[in-house]
Backbone:
């Protein structure tokens, strides 16, 4: 599944590409480019970045303060750190006595780097993770050897969700000291919210298991009132004491603010964790882009963020409905419709052979100039310790792109299926 040749230079190991990078490179080998109107990239992990109806104006230029030509502090610009703390206190913790301060925030260059800092700071423990899960988790969970990655299978029969009681048994039975979760989930779009999320945070306290929450899609939520205010979901609403609760939140501008190019993320948690990951950052990366941190401060204004989130939810909800309806009409299975994020976890098992195989469906899609991601990439298997693979009959389809691209992509998938129905 990887076109990269294993290096034969002494001392280097083979490093596979993540699923999204793999499928994009395969498409480029067949003529794909981002500005080609005939191609539709439904494998992309980023949202459309242009103006949306009702959204705040987009940042179009960044002025560089001469002082910001120097390195930023490894933990981040103090103004941005405070803006992040204020955002969470305003949106999620108005009625809480315990508040976040800038000392509870660390800034990094993008979400993967924030997670890498966290992974490098973990001790010799068992860390749980769910499958299916974000493809980049596999390399993240493989490269650091201090902890052991323990998979927890989410079943289609349970809509890819796990009850708090079952999760408790997994944590205690497997001796987990940390649990990595994306919420909403990439790739299934399933969401833990409300009382269920409160129970998860209580379980983290009771079981003394650090809950590391990747909340990259937490503003893409489709369970609110159609005509109501923006609905955003975060475990920050259920943290009792910001210094002692083992709840660590990671978010970034990439998805929820639709600025993937700025590469700005943050980690929110107890001061002791923030100090530890800042120490890790001092040798891993040295700190995030200084001028972009300054530009990001205004984006954390709670009123602007709520305006942006409402625009996202209104716009992406329409795209979600369009894609779901098109896929159902094609005979593609949807075991659990996404309650969040902008992905559909599609079951191909009812398609005519050989399209019931995700890799084949992907390769045939390239012939019609459409990109999807085969499901096997979401079978996170650090170190390839499991011999049996999963999700060969699945793929992830993104409704992140503009509607015109979605229409182009759905038409292309339809042509693929019709071609094999005739043969």
Residues:
């Amino acid at each position: 599944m990887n076109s990269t040749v294993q290096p034969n230079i002494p001392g280097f190991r083979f490093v596979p590409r993540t699923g999204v990078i793999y499928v994009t490179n395969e498409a480029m080998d067949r003529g794909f480019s981002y500005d080609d109107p005939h191609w539709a990239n439904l494998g992309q992990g980023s949202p459309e970045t242009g103006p949306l109806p009702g959204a705040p104006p987009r940042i179009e230029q960044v002025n560089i303060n001469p002082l910001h030509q120097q390195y930023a502090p490894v933990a981040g610009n103090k103004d941005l750190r405070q803006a992040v703390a204020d955002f969470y206190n305003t949106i999620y913790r108005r009625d809480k006595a315990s508040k976040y301060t800038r000392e509870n925030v660390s800034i990094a260059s993008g979400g993967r780097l924030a997670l890498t800092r966290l992974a490098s700071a973990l001790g010799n423990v068992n860390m749980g993770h769910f499958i299916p899960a974000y493809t980049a988790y596999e390399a993240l969970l493989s490269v650091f050897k201090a902890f052991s990655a323990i998979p927890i299978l989410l079943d289609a029969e349970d809509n890819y969700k796990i009850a708090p009681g079952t999760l408790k048994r997994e944590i205690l039975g497997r001796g987990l000291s940390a649990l990595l979760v994306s919420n909403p989930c990439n790739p299934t779009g399933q969401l833990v919210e409300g009382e269920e999320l409160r129970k998860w945070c209580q379980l983290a306290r009771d079981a003394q298991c650090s809950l590391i929450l990747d909340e990259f899609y937490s503003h893409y939520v489709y369970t609110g009132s159609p005509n109501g205010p923006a609905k955003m979901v975060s475990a920050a609403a259920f943290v009792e004491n910001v210094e002692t609760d083992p709840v660590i939140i990671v978010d970034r501008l990439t998805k929820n603010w639709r600025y993937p190019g700025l590469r700005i993320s943050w980690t929110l948690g107890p001061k002791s964790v923030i100090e530890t990951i800042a120490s890790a950052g001092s040798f891993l990366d040295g700190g995030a882009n200084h001028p972009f941190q300054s530009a990001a401060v205004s984006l954390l204004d709670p009123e602007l963020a709520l305006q942006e989130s409402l625009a996202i939810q209104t716009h992406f909800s329409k795209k979600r409905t369009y894609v779901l309806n098109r896929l159902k009409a094609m005979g593609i299975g949807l075991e659990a419709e996404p309650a969040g994020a902008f992905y559909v976890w599609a079951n191909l098992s009812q398609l005519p052979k050989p399209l019931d195989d995700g890799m084949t469906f992907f390769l045939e899609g390239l012939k019609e100039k459409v990109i999807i991601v085969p499901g096997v990439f979401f079978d996170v298997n650090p170190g390839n310790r499991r011999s049996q693979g999963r999700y060969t009959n699945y793929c992830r389809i993104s409704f992140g792109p503009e509607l015109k691209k979605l229409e182009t992509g759905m038409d292309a998938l339809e042509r693929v299926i019709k071609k094999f129905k005739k043969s």
The longest helix spans residues 302-329. DSSP finds twelve helices and twelve strands in the chain.
